[in-house]
Amino acid sequence: MRFGLGMRSPSSPGLAIGESMDVFTILLSVHLILAVALIGVVLLQRSEGGALGIGGGGGGLMSGRAAGNLLTRTTAILAACFFGMSVALAIVVKNQAAEPSILDTMPPASTTPAAPAAEMPPAEPAAPLSR
């Protein structure tokens, strides 16, 4: 899925958008940046109760209630953007014309019922029966 071929960007009139910019590549790059930023913000947060967090000590680069609120808000915003980007990537991949699904290429099931198997007599027991 590309932007329109031959369509010029208003900000850069010399570059045609469809020539080298793939929507999936752009979204995937932004998704990667969001993931790294989200990991970084989560690791900056203070550990509560001695869990696996890195910043468990008293002072440090960011301390206080305001810094905690800022990190909490930043984490929530980045997580929402990450979720939205995941949905956008799923929609773009779904709409790309790729190979059809294996379920689409399977022949239709026959509508006639299968013939019943021939009845066989019960087999003799391999061990003698107890009396």
Structure characterization notes:
With 131 residues, the protein is mainly α. 47% of the residues lie in helices and 0% in strands. α2 (23-44) runs antiparallel to α3 (65-95). The model is unreliable at 1-9 and 14-20 (pLDDT under 50).
Entry keywords:
0% strand, mainly alpha, 131 residues, disordered N terminus
Number of discrete helical segments:
4
Oligomeric form: single chain
Topology pattern, helix = H, strand = E: HHHH
- Share in β-strands: under 5%
Number of DSSP strand runs: 0
Range of helix content: 40-55%
Structural class: mainly alpha
Low-confidence sequence ranges:
1-9, 14-20
Largest sheet: none
Using only CA atoms, what is the Rg?
A: 30 Å
**Separation, N- and C-terminal Cα atoms:** 77 Å
Structural shape: elongated
Average pLDDT: 73
Chain-wise SSE layout:
Blueprint lengths: L16 H4 L2 H22 L20 H31 L6 H4 L26
Helix pairs in contact: 2-3
Task: Give a quick precis of the structure.
The protein is mainly α and 131 residues long. It is built from 4 helices and no strands. Residues 1-9 and 14-20 have low confidence and may be disordered.
